[in-house]
Design the sequence.
């Protein structure tokens, strides 16, 4: 089930790139090249072959883990991805954690007292989060917190000019510097992380609040909650029953949200010069770096798959009703 | 003093429509009846008559926009209407318990059966886990669940409909209630299981001197298992009395129509539409609510019919209730 | 002891103010959303009248001025009046939202109708292709396509419409399946209706009903994503007064403190997207009162 979808995505990307009017040959060759140079480059890039042959070669190389080379940087795509992915993940996962930690309780509380003040306010805030473009709020936040108040460091990436990255254990600068006891670097990394993570967590929290509320409302109106009340169970116990029954759907929802977030974090990476996968991928698309784009899209798709698998496993553990399907 | 005394209960659904007009659906219109120890009272009526609504109102389980607007419910002398949730919780699940229609969706999907039985006890009194567990096993045996020890560890979704209903009965019994309300306890169960469940209920009520209220649309159930019957229509009780008596000599035209249908027809279709469409609770006719469907409706029916005593503790809410001649003529035994 | 809660006598009757109040009461979100979208629509239509200057009229000696009496929203890096530009930007908002909504429906709904009605192989194919499309992170896909096919308004609209169509296919398809199982279709067939008639006269109105709220939400998304594309540098570009493009310009000036270039187009963007989202949310409240009724 998974492989066909991945293949389909790869194929679609392949096709889109080649029918577009971006011409990597021209870009690599430069303005001074002549006919012969064009032909040479084309042959080197393998672009002179028929479409399906190209695709076949690409998929074949994929099987060996060779994602090709970026025409922009001449680096191997696989390497570029490996270098940049941890940065994006660090940002993404921290924001999702924060967003969920705030969003889920708010959604739950809203459902418990629907249409009262707390609920109205949280729904409005959530809708706001839906409506605010990531990049714009980032710009505004930088203006206020960096330019005006000086609380945030300049948006120049994951570390400042004076610091060096810690040894690579997990890939996260923050975690690695803590693990190696390098508190100075840890502080810097945390400082750089603060603003983008907080901003992104707001974006993440908005749909979480909305759906947690909806799920919770459904649970609170269910047969078993009503029956629990009829048993004369304490309100606290009834709430606990409702809560436990809400967790699985909420978790599933967060998972589906997560799959799309790796792409939307790329905008934030652009603005904060984060050096992550998204920034690189966006750039690749704009410059027509075919191999890089393919690699980027593939990583996004694979990420979705991984997330779905993780969620499925979690559900299996939490839900007595879930069974393994062949 | 009866175990349960419901007096003049009015429950309304109050909302606003899109034109901002007030819309009031009168679900219960002056429901009055009693349940005594050792009695099994059957509440019958078509869909929408207000049977489940009565149970919900008694148990304090009404959800907005439904509200009790008038009336009283006395349980063993104490008034239930107006009690706080905490005060209600002292009675619910202990002395006054309920068995609901859909057992499989009513049990907490994330707790094993044993845990739910233990929880039902420990929420209400100080009892050790071990003792509560033992009680659970014993009650499971009482309600006829084989291999109770093993079943205590089962998840609700692993149970069959009949088994789940027995678990609900166990949950209803485990704290020694004085009154059980059973809301359509046999819906969705197959016929043999239905009989077993009802036999069980009847025996329990008899052995423990409890009171029971069985809500059903099935006259057969009432005939075999209840001692008294209350017939509901459009939110009021239009006839009540000992089961034998009411079946032999129904005094309200609606009851007459019900009883005169063959048991076979009732068993097949329930009785949704005897004599016409269900009443519109938003716009009930003035006077007798049944007059639009009644074959005997006359001018006097524009006035609210009084509750007439027909003798032998049978009562009917009809102007013509004491009219024995016409009554006998319309009843067919079948 | 009785609990007294008086039930006042219900009134009858339809008045415009009654209806407005009734709708607002049932869903204040809808009311607010409608007002907001209405304001933006007004601005879009009357942009020329409201704006003191033209949207690309430059004042070369008055570059990067903060908001003042002359330039209410300040002036940008090219010396153009921000206020006029923001007002005209509203046209792009609707100019993208409405056509893409139409395209989404034109592509998505018939596919959903056919898939749900025919079932079998056709259904499978449609579903699988929708799956592939859905697994694609939409921003990336939109970006890739627009970057590849050239930067124009038409392309942006087409791409967005195409990308969101699967959502409606899915919605319509499940409505059709539900209608099929309820015997609605069988009776139509039994009455001798030709297939196309069943599809368009019988099924279509019912199937669409469930999608109305989603249309508003997708329009919000359309505006958002087109602005995002413009911000990245794809699609519409300066000096066209599109809000996303304006924010892109403003980004350069944030660090140096000229906040107004990025702020006002952003506020406008947030406003219109919020308006559509409120509208969509509110429509859902109105059309599916069960959701709101639980625990009022």
Sequence:
């Amino acid at each position: 089930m998974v492989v066909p979808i991945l293949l389909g995505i790869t194929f679609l990307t392949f096709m889109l790139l080649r029918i577009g009017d971006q011409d990597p040959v021209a870009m690599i060759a430069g303005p001074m090249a002549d006919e012969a140079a064009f032909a040479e480059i084309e042959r080197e890039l393998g672009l002179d072959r028929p479409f399906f042959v190209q695709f076949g070669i690409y998929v074949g190389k994929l099987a060996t883990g060779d994602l090709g080379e970026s025409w922009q940087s001449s680096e191997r795509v696989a390497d570029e991805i490996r270098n940049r992915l941890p940065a994006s993940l660090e940002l993404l996962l921290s924001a999702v954690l924060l967003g969920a930690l705030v969003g889920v309780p708010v959604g739950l509380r809203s459902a418990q007292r629907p249409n009262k003040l707390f609920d109205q306010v949280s729904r409005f805030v959530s809708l706001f989060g839906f409506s605010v473009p990531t990049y714009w709020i980032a710009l505004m936040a930088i203006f206020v917190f960096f330019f005006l108040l000086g609380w945030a460091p300049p948006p120049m990436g994951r570390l400042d000019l004076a610091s060096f990255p810690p040894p690579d254990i997990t890939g996260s600068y923050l975690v690695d510097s803590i693990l190696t006891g390098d508190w100075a670097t840890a502080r810097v990394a945390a400082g750089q992380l603060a603003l983008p993570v907080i901003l992104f967590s707001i974006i993440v929290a908005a749909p979480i609040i909305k759906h947690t509320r909806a799920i919770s409302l459904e649970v609170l109106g269910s047969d078993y909650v009503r029956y629990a009340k009829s048993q004369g169970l304490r309100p606290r116990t009834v709430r606990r029953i409702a809560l436990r029954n809400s967790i699985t759907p909420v978790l599933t929802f967060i998972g589906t949200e997560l799959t799309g977030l790796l792409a939307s974090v790329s905008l934030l990476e652009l603005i904060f010069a984060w050096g992550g996968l998204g920034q690189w991928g966006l750039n690749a698309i704009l410059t027509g770096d075919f191999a890089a784009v393919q690699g980027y899209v593939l990583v996004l798709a694979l990420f979705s798959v991984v997330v779905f698998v993780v969620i499925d496993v979690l559900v299996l553990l939490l839900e007595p009703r879930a069974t393994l399907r062949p | 003093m009866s175990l349960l005394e419901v007096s003049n209960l009015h429950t309304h659904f109050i909302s606003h429509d899109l034109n901002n007009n007030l819309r009031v659906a009168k679900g219960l219109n002056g429901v009055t009846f009693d349940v005594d120890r050792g009695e099994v009272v059957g509440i019958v009526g078509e869909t929408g008559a207000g049977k489940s609504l009565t149970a919900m109102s008694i148990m304090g389980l009404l959800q907005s926009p439904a509200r009790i607007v008038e009336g009283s419910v006395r349980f063993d002398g104490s008034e239930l209407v107006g009690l706080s949730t905490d005060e209600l919780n002292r009675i619910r699940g202990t002395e006054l318990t309920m068995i609901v229609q859909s057992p499989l969706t009513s049990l907490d999907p994330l707790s094993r059966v044993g845990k739910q039985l233990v929880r039902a006890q420990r929420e209400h009194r100080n009892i050790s886990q071990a003792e509560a567990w033992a009680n659970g096993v014993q009650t499971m045996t009482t309600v006829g669940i084989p291999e109770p020890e093993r079943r205590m560890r089962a998840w609700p979704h692993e149970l069959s409909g009949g088994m789940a209903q027995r678990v609900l009965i166990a949950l209803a019994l485990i704290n020694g209630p004085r009154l059980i309300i059973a809301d359509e306890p046999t819906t969705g169960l197959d016929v043999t299981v239905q009989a077993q469940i009802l036999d069980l209920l009847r025996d329990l009520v008899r052995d423990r001197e409890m009171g029971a209220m069985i809500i059903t649309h099935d006259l057969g159930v009432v005939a075999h298992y209840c001692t008294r019957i209350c017939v509901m229509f459009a939110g009021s009780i239009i006839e009540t009395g000992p089961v034998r008596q009411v079946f032999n000599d129904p005094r309200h035209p609606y009851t007459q129509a019900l009883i005169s249908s063959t048991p076979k027809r009732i068993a097949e279709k329930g009785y949704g539409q005897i004599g016409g469409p269900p009443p519109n609770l938003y716009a009930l006719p003035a006077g007798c609510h049944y007059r639009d469907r009644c074959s005997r409706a006359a001018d006097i029916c524009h006035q609210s019919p009084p509750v007439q005593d027909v003798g032998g503790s049978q009562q009917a809410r009809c102007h013509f209730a004491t009219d024995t001649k016409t009554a006998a003529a319309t009843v067919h035994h079948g | 002891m009785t609990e007294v809660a008086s039930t006042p006598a219900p009134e009858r009757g339809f008045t415009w103010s009654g209806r407005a109040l009734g709708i607002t009461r049932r869903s204040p979100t809808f009311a607010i959303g409608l007002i907001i979208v209405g304001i933006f629509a007004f601005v879009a239509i009357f942009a020329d009248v409201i704006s003191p200057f033209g949207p690309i009229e430059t004042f070369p000696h008055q570059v990067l001025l903060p908001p003042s009496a002359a330039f209410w929203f300040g002036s940008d890096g090219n010396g153009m009046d921000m206020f006029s530009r923001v007002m005209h930007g509203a046209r792009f908002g609707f100019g993208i939202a409405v056509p893409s909504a139409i395209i989404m429906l034109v592509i998505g709904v018939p596919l959903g109708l056919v898939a749900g009605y025919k079932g079998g192989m056709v259904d499978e194919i449609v579903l699988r292709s929708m799956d592939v499309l859905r697994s694609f992170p939409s921003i990336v896909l939109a970006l890739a396509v627009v970057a590849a096919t050239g930067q124009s308004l038409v392309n942006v609209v087409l791409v967005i419409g195409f990308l969101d169509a699967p959502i409606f296919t899915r919605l319509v398809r499940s409505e059709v399946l539900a209608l099929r199982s309820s015997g609605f279709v069988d009776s139509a067939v039994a009455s001798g209706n030709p297939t196309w008639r069943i599809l368009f006269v019988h099924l279509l109105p019912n199937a669409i009903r469930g999608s109305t709220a989603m249309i508003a939400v997708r329009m919000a998304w359309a505006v958002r994503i087109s602005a995002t594309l413009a911000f990245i540098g794809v699609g519409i570009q300066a000096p066209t007064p599109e809000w996303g493009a304006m924010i892109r310009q403003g980004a350069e000036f944030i660090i140096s403190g000229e906040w107004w270039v990025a702020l006002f187009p952003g506020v406008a963007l947030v406003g219109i997207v919020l308006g559509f989202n409120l509208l969509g949310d509110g429509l859902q409240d109105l059309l599916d009162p069960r959701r709101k009724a639980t625990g009022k």
Q: What stands out?
A: The two ends of chain A are 12 Å apart (CA to CA). DSSP finds 13 helices and no strands in chain A. The mean pLDDT of chain A is 82.
